[in-house]
Amino acid sequence: MLVDADLGSANLHTCLGIDPPRRSLSDFIERRVHRIEDIVTPTGVPNLGLVSGAMDGLDAANPNHSQKMRLLHHIEAMDVDHVIVDVGAGTHLNVLDFFLVCDHGILVLVPEPTAVENVYRFVKAAFWRRVRNVVSVCGFEDLLREVMAEDRFKSPVEIVGALAALDPEAGQVLARQLGLFRPRLVVNQARTPQDAEIGVSVVAAWRKFFGLEMDYLGHIQHDEEMWRKARARRPSLLQGPDPGTPAARSFARIADRLAELDAAHASEEAP
168-180 and 156-166 helices cross at what angle (nearest 10)? Predict the structure, then answer.
């Protein structure tokens, strides 16, 4: 199932070459339908459905907390093998919450300085959103506020250490969250070997300055055929592409890398 969670700017239906769906998340958020399954649109691709994003109404594009929690709950409860959630850009709280609810948060950047800056801002915002959610649920707000008031810590790891000195249980909880927060990164439209290496540099900088882990899944090589298919509203990899084309090889490598990381992390967590 594809879920277009770019509320207000939904366009996955265009990428799939289908007309705007008759029903969308607007209907679910505004309770014109009661089950998210009632707004699933066939895509023409076997075993693939689409939940289109909110395309009208300011309220639907900016759901309140209870509407968002209801939506997230229904997405998690869908009886499907996999749900792929496409979130919008920026660091709006709705975007961060959709990103954080997923098992695998994958960031995509093009090899440009502005895109790299945006990735750092987004990951920092997503991490602190997760921390604040955890301390709110566990009742550690006062402790975190006390530690943050000192304004002398350079990384999340240092903050967790200071928190653990005040309350070992709180420190242990947040340390566990540090380990669980592990976004993945893809570099898109890489034209040179240097472009592909940007992902390695971003991961290294994130680890150095923030003490947190990030997995680099790989790069998608620039392919002239990709934009031609996008302009024609045809999914590139569903049009029988030559397996030897740059984009096809890139997607295959990224899929393999994601499977390898899942297997490795599963073995680490096993007793």
Answer: 150
Would 26 be classed as within a structural domain?
A: yes
**Closest alpha carbon to 201 in 189, 187, 191, 188:** 187
Q: How many domains does the chain have?
A: 1
Summarize pLDDT for 95-132 with one digit per residue, the tens.
999 999 898 999 999 999 999 999 999 998 998 898 88
pLDDT of residue 37: 93
Rounded-to-10 torsion of CA 199, 204, 206, 210: 180
- Residue 173, pLDDT > 60, answer yes
Least Cα distance to 137 among 168, 112, 162, 170 occurs for 170
How far is the C-alpha of 254 from the C-alpha of 186, rounded, in Å? Answer: 8
Residue 151 domain-assigned?
no
- Note whether 220 and 190 are within 8 A (CB): yes
Cα–Cα dist 241/80, whole Å = 27
pLDDT in tens, 154-166: 677 788 888 888 8
Half-sphere exposure in the Cβ direction for 246 (13 Å, CA) = 13
User: In this structure, what are the phi and psi dihedrals at residue 172, rounded to the nearest 5 degrees?
Assistant: -65, -40
**Single-letter code of the amino acid located at 112:** E
Q: Which of 81, 74, 98 is nearest to 4 (CA)?
A: 98
Output the pTM of the full model. 0.85
In a domain, 74, yes or no: yes
Domain, as residue range, for 70: 1-102
- CATH number for the domain including 59? 3.40.50.300
Strand order across the beta sheet in which 2-5 lies? 40-42, 49-51, 2-5, 84-87
Taking alpha carbons only, the member of 32, 28, 202 closest to residue 108 is: 202
What pLDDT sits at residue 55? 67
Residue 242 pLDDT greater than 60, yes or no: no
